[in-house]
């Protein structure tokens, strides 16, 4: 049923048609990009659940394989859903140092019907779960580098945590829960460092600045950049025009107010 929404929004990006939705744009943008790269032309109407796709090349956005243009594209949502298995394996392995526990976790996800079902349709859920679990894995890996702060691996995992936080928030606002998790973990780390009398306040300040840079400023910059791309790509009049001001509508190609001078 949700394919009628998110598939249609992917088509809007391909056709550069402006629309409005309650969720942030990153997930729909990635669906549209996957469809574009796999040969989908954005012409399927997505009117009601169960409509046949017929000749429309929808597999790039969903699950399966596409052999068009002599290229093999692993389909987008199915690929991101399959990434959850190694993410879970690596996270549990890092936390428990137990290979049987990590393997058990991976097999539980491999044979989880809900995860398989969610990952084979044009939905935001596999994209959201990819960034959520990516953020948790990055956080855990960064914690494991605590004995060698400011090393290349420490910076890499800290930065990747920030990127995944931006991705989670950019798909759905539910991503704020993983922001809360990482935030609590960061507060605990900083409190522990503050209580370490062998560390100078200058070193503590560097730790604090690194986390502000990678876990606050970087995610906010990326989140804002997603909206900048969103408004740049969607430059044609569409069903979302009425939610915005006349001044904004005058910038949309095909709108009745296009290029009209609108007083502030």
From TrEMBL:
Q: What is its main location?
A: membrane
Cell location: Endomembrane system
**How is this protein positioned relative to the membrane?**
Multi-pass membrane protein
Read off the Pfam families from this record: PMT (PF02366)
**Any one GO BP annotation for this protein:** protein O-linked glycosylation
* Swiss-Prot/TrEMBL keywords: Glycosyltransferase, Membrane, Transferase, Transmembrane, Transmembrane helix
Instruction: Show the GO cellular component annotation of the record.
Output: endomembrane system; membrane
Looking at the record, the residues that make up the ArnT-like N-terminal domain are: 1-235
Pathway of action? Protein modification; protein glycosylation
MF (Gene Ontology): mannosyltransferase activity
Q: Where are the transmembrane segments?
A: 71-92, 99-121, 155-188, 208-229
Q: Which family does it belong to?
A: Belongs to the glycosyltransferase 39 family.
Q: What is the name of the protein in this document?
A: Protein O-mannosyl-transferase 2
């Amino acid at each position: 049923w949700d394919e009628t929404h998110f598939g249609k929004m992917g088509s809007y990006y391909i056709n550069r048609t402006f629309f409005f939705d309650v969720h942030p744009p990153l997930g729909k943008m990635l669906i549209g990009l996957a469809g574009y790269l796999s040969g989908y032309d954005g012409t399927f109407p997505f009117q009601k659940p169960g409509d046949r796709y017929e000749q429309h090349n929808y597999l790039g956005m969903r699950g399966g394989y596409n052999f068009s243009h002599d290229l093999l594209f692993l389909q987008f949502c199915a690929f991101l859903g399959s990434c959850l298995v190694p993410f879970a394996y690596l996270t549990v392995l890092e936390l428990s140092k137990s290979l049987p526990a990590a393997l058990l976790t991976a097999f539980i996800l491999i044979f989880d019907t809900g995860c398989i079902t969610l990952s084979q349709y044009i939905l935001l859920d596999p994209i959201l779960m990819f960034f959520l679990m990516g953020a948790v894995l990055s956080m855990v890996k960064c914690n494991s580098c605590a004995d060698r702060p400011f090393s290349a691996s420490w910076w890499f995992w800290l930065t990747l945590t920030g990127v995944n936080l931006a991705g989670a928030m950019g798909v759905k606002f539910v991503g704020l829960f993983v922001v809360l998790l990482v935030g609590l973990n960061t507060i605990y780390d900083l409190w522990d460092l503050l209580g370490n009398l062998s560390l100078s306040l200058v070193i503590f300040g560097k730790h604090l600045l690194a986390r502000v840079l990678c876990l606050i400023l970087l995610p906010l910059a990326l989140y804002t950049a997603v909206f900048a791309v969103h408004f740049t790509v969607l430059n044609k009049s569409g069903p979302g025009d009425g939610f915005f001001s006349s001044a904004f509508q005058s910038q949309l190609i095909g709108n009745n107010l296009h290029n009209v001078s609108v007083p502030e």
